């Protein structure tokens, strides 16, 4: 039996667990299982190997995508540049294990949003500055798309602005708007980022990392102005498939 799993905090419903259990069943992989490893603190991470010696791969979710890095033996170049890990390959060698970290969020986001963009989409507004925004910034930099980030913090870092500074001019310049906050996630479906939606147009692309509900209030407000919209479900599927490929290599 090979075990795969997800490490995180208070996981509740797990997209990853459902996705991989369904994948194993469809592909007839009866000798595979996927477990949730809920960790109250990241220091509990090494203990999961004491009770399960056939772990072959792990996914890592918030709030540990950065905190997991010191526990790894090696980190992929892309993950190092992003500064976050969401996939861990476990390499077994002579009764020793080696842990290598990757970031497949970049792959998922890149291949999900690029088909929506045209030559007019040169600047992006990222809503949120937390861990979820790291992969987004990496992809935007890779494709030479300028961006600014909206934050609720009092002290602004370079390339950041407060939500109250987002006006018609900002939205006219930034035709890509990405929600990298949890606002609008079920069950609080009546929430959405505080931006002036009245200034959105059919030239805008609104991308929401939230995938439950299928259409968030953020997306509905954009769609009412003719904007193209997409949720984060395709990104999740793509990053999961990329993780599976890494584990099998």
UniProtKB/TrEMBL annotation:
GO terms for molecular function: NADP binding; shikimate 3-dehydrogenase (NADP+) activity. Its EC number is 1.1.1.25. Pfam families: Shikimate_dh_N. Residues 6-88 form the Shikimate dehydrogenase substrate binding N-terminal domain. Coiled coil: none annotated. GO terms for biological process: aromatic amino acid family biosynthetic process; chorismate biosynthetic process; shikimate metabolic process. Pathway: Metabolic intermediate biosynthesis; chorismate biosynthesis; chorismate from D-erythrose 4-phosphate and phosphoenolpyruvate: step 4/7. InterPro entries: Aminoacid_DH-like_N_sf, NAD(P)-bd_dom_sf, Shikimate_DH-bd_N, Shikimate_DH_fam. The keyword Amino-acid biosynthesis applies. Keywords: Amino-acid biosynthesis, Aromatic amino acid biosynthesis, Oxidoreductase. It comes from the Bacteria. It is an enzyme of class 1 (oxidoreductase). One of its GO terms (cellular component) is cytosol. Gene3D superfamilies: Leucine Dehydrogenase, chain A, domain 1, NAD(P)-binding Rossmann-like Domain. The keyword Membrane does not apply. This is Shikimate 5-dehydrogenase. It comes from Sunxiuqinia dokdonensis.
């Amino acid at each position: 039996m090979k075990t795969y799993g997800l490490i995180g905090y208070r996981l509740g419903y797990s997209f990853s667990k459902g996705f991989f259990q369904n994948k194993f069943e469809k592909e007839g992989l009866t000798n595979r299982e996927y477990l949730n490893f809920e960790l109250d603190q990241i220091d509990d991470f090494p203990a999961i190997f004491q009770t399960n010696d056939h772990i072959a791969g792990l996914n890592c979710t918030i709030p540990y995508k950065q905190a997991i890095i010191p526990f790894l033996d090696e980190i992929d170049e892309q993950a190092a540049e992003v500064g976050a890990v969401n996939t861990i390959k476990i390499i077994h060698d002579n009764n020793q294990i080696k842990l290598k970290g990757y970031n497949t969020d970049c792959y998922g986001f890149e291949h999900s949003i690029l088909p929506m963009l045209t030559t007019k989409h040169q600047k992006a507004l990222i809503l949120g500055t937390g861990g979820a925004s790291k992969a987004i910034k990496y992809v935007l930099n890779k494709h030479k798309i300028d961006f600014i980030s909206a934050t609720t913090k009092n002290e602004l870092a370079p390339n950041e602005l407060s939500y109250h500074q987002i006006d018609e001019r900002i939205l006219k310049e930034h035709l890509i708007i990405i929600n990298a906050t949890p606002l609008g996630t079920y069950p609080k479906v009546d929430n959405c980022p505080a931006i002036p939606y009245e200034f959105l147009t059919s030239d805008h692309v609104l991308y929401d990392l939230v995938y439950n509900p299928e259409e968030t209030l953020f997306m509905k407000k954009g769609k009412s102005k003719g904007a193209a919209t997409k949720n984060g479900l395709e990104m999740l599927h793509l990053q999961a498939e990329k993780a599976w490929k890494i584990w099998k290599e």
